Amino acid sequence: MDESPARYAAVCVDHPLPQLNQLFDYRVPVELLDEVQPGCRVAVRFSGRKLKATVMELRDRTDFTGKVLPVLEVVPPGAVLTAEVAAAARRVADRYAGNLADVLRLALPERKLRVEKEAPAEPQPVAAPTTTHWNRYIAGEAFLRAVREGKPPRIVWSAIPGEDWATRLAEAAATAAAAGRGAVLVVPDQYDLERLDAALTAVLGPDRHVTLSNAMGPTPRYRSFLKALRGEVRIVAGTQVAMLAPVEDLGLVAVWDDGDKNLTSLHAPQPHARDVLLTRAEMAGAACVVGGFSRTPQAQLLVETGWAISAVGERDALRAAAPRVVPIGDDADLAADPSSSTARLPTVAWEAARTALNADLPVLLQVPRRGYVPAVSCQRCRTRALCPECTGPLRLTGPRRPPVCTWCGRVDEQYRCKECGSTQIRAVVIGAARTAEELASAFPGVEVVESNASERLGTIPEGRRIVVSTPGVEPTAPQGYGAVLLLDTWAQLTRAELTASEEALRIWMHAVSLCAPTGTAVVTADGGLPVVQALIRWDPAWFARLELDERAELGFPPVMKFAALTGPNGEAEKIAANLPSDLGAEVIGPIPVDEHTERLLLRVRRRDGAALASVLAKATAERSSAKAEQVKVQIDPREIA
């Protein structure tokens, strides 16, 4: 082979057109031979336009028979895409029938010149933790020992109630870093990231890790990216934007609460952080943790197929940490005390709250919706109250106020039911604000605070108070809550989604995990339901197996692979009609999205998922080249995945 310097750069052009989802060869000028290298960003001329591109590899020859254009310039600061991330990006693009350029856009943050001029810092050593609480889990100590030895153990971890999950992940990351390997830890949101950031600092010491998220802004994010790229730190923690973060010698990946929809990227091709990290773990020979208080069927499938092992709490540890969980299925079981009736609390919930408050402990109420009364209906015939202008749902924003349209904001001063003519309305769902108002009357002298997505409380001080929270934003209490009350659970269980029960258990377990071991958790749902039984026994693995078996019987993910095609009427059907027969694809739909758009689902066996993605990517590229109307392709659509 010719030993002369490579003269051609195979680049991925930064352009979203599907037909450009391939590498293009450009000649490397002599003056740039020392600067052009795999992973660097360059400027090239493409179709008469100057575009940015990423060098994927260097070649000493090209098969292109036309005129090979030169690389115009190299964009500092040199290679920003590591070989490991480049290979993972290619795999992710193929899995999701997407463009490599789109995936690289997720991996490479916006460049900031000022940050590049900052002097790099010397990497700080990381010591392995001397003590951990992983011994409370079956296979926990064996997992850490394997990480310490540089092996690639893989676990699906179900945390016990009250677990300091952030510290457990920090201990695992410290173990990997002490062994000379890097770690990428991904959590659903900024609040979880702040908690993980604090835990990493406490376990590792300062300046030994960085965080990555959109909330931190472009400049700090680019600074963190460069620190990881240059090897100044070995550990990166972040939200889903960190799933392709560069770390030196990747030895551990971890995702927390993988059922949270925030872990799916909103940008094409919309990959899920869990699947990206699993891909990286397999390709890099890295350890893997898929953790949470609950467990998804996707995570359980990893156990069932032998890809990972289950790490659940030891019986004694679980018994010591779990509060008592009491189901209440009869709405007629209200306390005789008129105050409790006003607060719509069943007797057991009322007593649990009063006992906790008398012990000077806080009480947490989880309600499914924020606002005052977010949904109303006719008092007489129960027909949903809708706006007469746009037919949007009406809601109440406060006491003695007329209903307001959720969509257009119109105030309906003269509401009248279109079915029966009644002018009276009733609440369909009681919101957090209304619940807080009622509780303030029911428990005079007790402070009532509210936590929601727009006004989230991180933690509350010690002492008696009542916290009304919507799911996922419950604040922590220093000594745990004396009582956790899960209200209006039907609003979660009756959602018209495949994941309704799974999502209900996830948000319930998150709330109950905040309860003190001596406290009581009350769930207003039938105790005979499997999802409630899983909560009572704190056995998410059992419920995940049930869900997985049911989905296998019905032919739903993750047992089967789905693709959603959305586009102008008739166009998705054209793609489906040309699929190879050996794929055995089942066509579901099409379903109208609006007057001009339809949505069609394709279902294939799991082992044929990669072939389906490849066929759809090719079809999309061909349609784009022919300037046909575009059809959006989404693999593992969020609503059914």
Question: Which secondary structure elements does this structure contain, and how are they paired or packed?
Answer:
Blueprint: E1 8-13, E2 24-27, E3 40-46, E4 49-59, E5 73-79, H1 83-95, H2 100-107, H3 113-116, H4 140-148, E6 154-158, H5 165-178, E7 182-186, H6 190-204, E8 209-212, H7 218-229, E9 235-238, E10 250-256, H8 273-284, E11 287-292, H9 297-304, E12 309-311, H10 315-321, E13 324-327, H11 338-342, H12 347-358, E14 363-366, E15 375-378, E16 394-395, E17 404-405, E18 425-429, H13 432-442, E19 448-451, E20 466-469, E21 481-486, H14 490-493, H15 500-512, E22 515-523, H16 530-537, H17 540-554, E23 560-568, H18 571-577, E24 586-592, E25 597-605, H19 609-625, E26 632-635
Parallel strand pairs: 6-11, 6-12, 7-9, 7-10, 8-9, 10-11, 13-22, 14-20, 14-21, 19-20, 21-22
Antiparallel strand pairs: 1-2, 1-4, 3-4, 3-5, 15-18, 16-17, 23-25, 23-26, 24-25
Cofactor: Zn(2+)
Binding site for Zn(2+) 1: 378, 381, 417, 420
InterPro entries: P-loop_NTPase, PriA, PriA_3primeBD, PriA_3primeBD_sf
Short description:
Residues 11-109 form the Primosomal protein N' 3' DNA-binding domain. 30% of the residues lie in helices and 22% in strands.
Q: Key terms for this structure?
A:
PriA_3primeBD, alpha/beta, Probable replication restart protein PriA, 30% helix, six-stranded parallel sheet, 19 helices, 641 residues, zinc, metal-binding, globular
Radius of gyration: 27 Å
Low-confidence stretches: 330-343
Which overall shape is indicated by the principal axes computed on the Cα atoms? globular
Structural class: alpha/beta
> Mean of the pLDDT scores?
90
SS field, number of helical segments: 19
Strand count, sense and closure of the main sheet? Answer: 7 strands, parallel
Which strand order spans the largest sheet, edge to edge or round the barrel? Answer: 8-9-7-10-11-6-12
Beginning-to-end CA distance, first to last residue: 48 Å
User: Helix amount, in percent?
Assistant: 25-40%
- Number of beta strands: 26
User: What fraction strand?
Assistant: 15-25%
